[in-house]
Write a structure and sequence with these properties.
alpha/beta, Rossmann fold, Alpha-Beta Plaits, 6-stranded mixed β-sheet, 4-stranded antiparallel β-sheet, 31% helix, elongated, AAA+_ATPase, nucleotide-binding, transport, ATP binding
């Protein structure tokens, strides 16, 4: 059996009218990881997820979920994956407990093996088990969607923008549960617009833009690709204008005595930047650095691919 939870090869999707949503995307999602799938709006992320879930038919290529080809073994492939969609869709007249029971029934889970109350407890909805779904807050509905995706105990959980519109406390509860599932062996695929979330949670990240894969690397390797760094320097006297130097990519006067200098770390180092200031006759009082993050990498890569 492959070490990949999901294998995608040359996946293509052309919608009626000629719009290419996916243009030959290929990558693997390693088993046991939290895997980030990022990209701008309209990049093709949701199309890819909908193909894996069986909601959208692909135009070409292959996809395997937990070793099952989605065309040759669709039932096994669907049983191996739980999808938490972007849209919040529930029957408003079912309670959370009924929602999970019905979903378990659709997957053929025997009553003796259903985990309705266990799942509601895990997503902090045990006290809402008998309430109508329409009375739940947006955050509660999001968490119920996660529980609904797990009723058949799939080895893969796909979260499509799961924290959109969710407050910080509920977001933290949701991620705590996702981490627990991952520790129990569930492979997690996450799409999100909160890049700091992806940077903190994901072991590996793939970036899609205009239907094409433009990056697929371990998170730290990806973050280290950011070449721009910034230092904020406090000097010993008031400045009327920002000093200039060839090694500065950009310099901004933040206050009378503070400048923020951006430089390319592959061309110069922080010592050279500070040396340029002292060469200009300025004494350095304090220095703080700003490390590059995933947002910097994301913007650089998507701008290059635009």
């Amino acid at each position: 059996m492959s070490d990949a939870a999901i294998e995608i090869r040359d996946l293509r999707k052309v919608y009626q009218g000629g719009k290419e949503a996916l243009r030959g995307v290929s990558f693997d999602v390693p088993r046991g990881q939290i895997f980030g799938l990022l990209g701008p709006n309209g990049a093709g992320k949701s199309t890819l997820i909908n193909i894996l879930s069986g909601m959208v038919n692909k135009s070409g290529g292959t996809a395997r979920v937990w070793g099952f080809d989605i065309d040759e073994h669709p039932r096994n492939a669907k049983a191996s994956i739980g999808i938490v969609p972007q849209e919040i869709l529930f029957d408003p007249f079912f309670t959370p407990a009924e929602t999970l029971e019905n979903q378990a029934g659709l997957y053929g889970v025997p009553k003796a093996r259903r985990r309705t109350m266990e799942l509601l407890r895990a997503v902090h909805l045990e006290d809402k088990a008998g309430a109508y779904a329409r009375t739940l807050s947006g955050g509660m509905k999001r968490r119920l969607l996660v529980a609904k995706a797990m009723v058949h105990s799939p080895p893969i959980l796909v979260l499509d923008e799961p924290t959109a519109g969710v407050d910080i406390q509920l977001r933290q509860q949701l991620w705590a549960y996702v981490r627990t599932l991952n520790e129990q062996g569930v492979t997690v695929v996450l799409t999100t617009h909160y890049l700091e979330e992806a940077e903190e949670l994901c072991d590996r990240i793939a970036i899609i833009n205009h239907g094409q894969l433009i990056a697929n690397e371990p998170t730290r390797t990806l973050v280290n690709k950011a070449q721009e760094k910034a230092v904020e320097v406090t000097v010993d006297r008031d400045l009327t204008e920002a000093p200039a130097a060839a090694c500065f990519e950009k310099i901004v006067l933040k206050s009378a005595r503070t400048v923020e200098i951006t430089y390319h770390k592959d061309k110069v180092n922080a010592g050279e930047v500070l040396g340029a200031l002292t060469a200009a006759g300025l004494g350095i009082v304090d220095v703080s650095t700003k490390e590059a993050d995933l947002e910097d990498v994301f913007l650089n890569l998507t701008n290059e691919a635009a």
